[in-house]
Structure formats: C-alpha cells, structure tokens
Design goal:
The chain is α/β, with parallel strands linked by helices and 403 residues long. The protein folds into three domains: 62 residues, Archaeosine Trna-guanine Transglycosylase, Chain: A, domain 4; 110 residues, Transcription Regulator spoIIAA, CATH 3.30.750.80; 192 residues, Vaccinia Virus protein VP39 (Rossmann fold, 3-Layer(aba) Sandwich), CATH 3.40.50. The protein contains ten helices and 22 strands. Helix 9 crosses helix 10. The N and C termini lie far apart (70 Å).
C-alpha cells in the first residue's frame, strides 16, 4: 500500500508528528492538542501519522487524554488479542509474589499493554479499575477471562479518575459495583508474607491496603525490632501492623480519618497484636508532629506516605510546597540515628525533585541526613520502558545524624 493510498484511510484519527514519534516508541496516550483530524464515535478506531501511516488501534475518550492506543500493529481489539495480553500479564506475575501473598495487582494498565485498565486480586475477589468509562468496551471480555482463569466469587468494577481529569464518574456507565458473582457481606482478610489485612473490594480502588508498598515493608522487616515507630498518614495501618509484627517497642499511628483508624485497630486485632503497645491518634499529621516536638517526644522510625492530592480543613496538599515542611517536621522528632521512611506516589514528581525535598527538609530541621536505601513499587506493579509515568512510586530511607 502506498503512502498516498494510506492517507485516504477513512474514519482514522490523525495525529501530529510529535505524537506519531511517541506512538512509534510504544507510548499509549494521545492528547487532544496532538490530534490534527478528529473522529467521532466511541468504538475502536485506527490511528494514523500525518503521512497516513498506520500507527495503531485506539479507544477514544473525551477527557485530558483524547485516546488510548492498545495495538500498535493496527489489529482489532478482539477476544484473541485481549485474552493473549491478559494471559501474559498473569504469566509475568508467576514467581514474583514471594511468601504467603494473595493481595496483588494482576494487570497494571499501560505497563501491561492495557491503558486505563487495572485488575487487583484480593483473595477470592477481583476488582477491575478503569481510568475512564471510555475503556468499558473491553469489560465483557475481561470478565469472561477472569471467570475462565480464576473463577472468583466476586468481580467488582470501580473508576479511578486521574486528578488531572475534572470529570465526574459517579453516574458513569457501566455503573461501579458488582459485575459478576456474589455480593460480599464481610471484609476479606488478605495475606502479605504472614501479615493479615482486612480489605473491602466493594470500596475500590482504595480497598484498605496498598500492595505497591510491599517491597518497602519487606525491606524494613529486619529493622523494626526494639524501635519506637511513628506512622503518619497511617490509613488502615499496614506499616503499623508490619512494625508491630517486626518487634517494635511502640507504634504510634496518626491519621485524620477516624473510620480508617477503626479499621487499623481491626487489622491489629486480626494479627493478634497487643493493642496496649499502640497509640492511635485521629489528628492532622502536621499538628501531631509539632506537638511531639514541643513535648520532647522522639522516635527511631518515622513513616511519611502522604496522599498525592488531598483536601482538608487545613487546606489543599501540595507536594512541592508541603513535602519539605512535612519532612523537616518529621526529622525534628527523630533521635540521632533515627530513620525517615519517606514516600511519594505522584508520577509527575521526579526522583531528583523528591530527593531535593529531603535536602531542603534537612536544612530546615538543622540536621544532616544519609540516604540508606532507594526503593520503588512491588514487581507486580511493573514500570514499562515505553511509559515514563510507570515508575511512579518513590521511597527513600534516610538516617538522621547530628549536625
């Protein structure tokens, strides 16, 4: 087929040269400003370069992403193709989930070749997470594949809109909720290398645990014993439970949400831990850190894992503005030799800038810090070379030393 005949392909979405260059490298997103010839409709469509060369098959959207490319060979988005991609993702998880673990990510969106679609396994339940209703044309075959390969008791659907997308998916079709199987009436206790955590698949995507931090918890396992641990932004307490199981002398957990802290206490009980060794505080982290500083209370380990985006009575969280201030406050309550375990899951934040926050924090706190480890997401959350945003989780461990 000549370039001229290719350029006459009807119904194809045409992108500019910049987008074409990225798509040829395997990048899966097309932004609105990169489209030179739009195409109406919701179903799969072909994507072509300015010269008419076929670049792939995509699903269009109406948000900050205009289309997601699933096949770069231009083939159809049919059952054979989709089941093949899903089978590969399943195969790639075999052998990497070490220990007694049954809560993990089965499909990691763009990084497994399925942009905008994630699948999480929680014991006998599965949660399908879509970034947009535009990905829904794949749902029927995804459910069929899950039922064929895993026979889960429950399959749930939820939406996870990107903070850059201002659309409201509360009334999206298909509606979030149970897609197949039986509606759950109780939490599921999932295992992570001997630790139990209660999750609620019907509350996806935030079911009550973040498995992407699994390797960080595994790294820290030998270093909790006899330590005083402060877990800020504690959520439902995975790090608090891990520290207690690892022999921490005391564990203090801080979060603004009382419901989350109630679930944290439930998770402590599920692991037969002595609640007398735990202090649970429904409080703003900044205020708690300031109070600890003023009263002279000190810790050996402080965990910082704030949300990328949040709103509270104290205002809107901004990593660039607030993280150095937060880390400095944490350093002020660490004894010399204590460790700061600091994390960010904001994909747009570079490792260099994140490390810069810690440098700034140490200066503000009047101390010095040594980087002991640099960690990232668990291997069931792979980061594809063709998708720069795939390496989103940044976790550093710094030891505080006297000035």
């Amino acid at each position: 087929m000549s370039k001229k005949s290719r350029s006459r392909r009807s119904g194809a979405l045409r992108v500019n040269g910049y987008s074409a260059e990225w798509l040829r490298k395997g990048f899966p997103w097309i932004y609105p400003k990169e489209i030179s010839r739009p195409v109406a409709g919701r179903g799969p469509l072909k994507v072509e370069a300015p010269d008419g060369t076929l670049l792939g098959t995509a699903l269009p959207d109406q948000g900050w992403i205009a289309a997601r490319v699933y096949r770069h060979d231009g083939g159809p988005l049919d059952r054979d193709w989709l089941w093949g991609v899903l089978d590969l993702a399943r195969e790639l998880r075999e052998g990497i989930l070490l220990g007694d673990t049954d809560g993990y990510r089965l499909v990691h969106g763009e990084n497994d070749g399925l942009p905008g679609l994630r699948i999480d396994r929680w014991g006998h339940a599965v949660v399908i997470v879509l970034d947009s209703p535009a990905v829904a044309p794949l749902l029927d075959e995804v459910v069929a594949w899950l039922e064929d390969r895993f026979t889960p008791r429950s399959i749930y659907l939820c939406y996870r809109p990107d903070p850059r997308d201002d659309r409201d998916f509360s009334a999206a079709e298909p509606a979030p909720g149970l897609l197949a199987g039986h509606s759950l009436r109780a939490e599921i206790a999932v295992r992570e290398r001997g630790m139990l955590m209660n999750v609620r698949p019907w509350d996806g995507p935030d079911v009550g645990m973040y498995p992407d931090m699994r390797e960080v918890r595994a790294f820290m396992a030998p270093y909790w014993g006899g330590q005083r641990v402060l877990n800020t932004f504690a959520y439902t307490g995975a790090f608090s439970v891990a520290a207690a199981l690892g022999g921490a002398l005391e564990v203090v957990s801080v979060d603004l949400s009382t419901p989350y802290l109630d679930r944290l206490e439930s998770n402590l009980r599920a692991n037969d831990l002595d609640l007398d060794l735990h202090e649970i505080l429904a409080e703003d982290t900044f205020k708690a850190l300031d109070r600890f500083r003023r009263t002279g209370r000190r810790f050996d380990r402080v965990i910082l894992d704030p949300p990328s985006f949040s709103h509270s009575s104290e205002g809107t969280w901004s990593a660039k503005r607030d993280y150095p201030r937060l880390a400095a406050a944490a350093m002020r309550v660490l004894d010399p030799g204590g460790w700061l375990i600091a994390a960010s899951n904001q994909g747009q934040l570079s490792p260099r800038d994140f490390r810069g926050f810690i440098v700034d924090a140490a200066r503000r706190a009047g101390c010095r810090a040594q980087e002991l480890a640099w960690l990232g997401q668990a291997p069931d959350y792979p980061a594809a070379t063709w998708f720069p945003e795939g390496r989103y989780l940044k976790v550093g461990i710094w030891r505080i030393i006297p000035s």
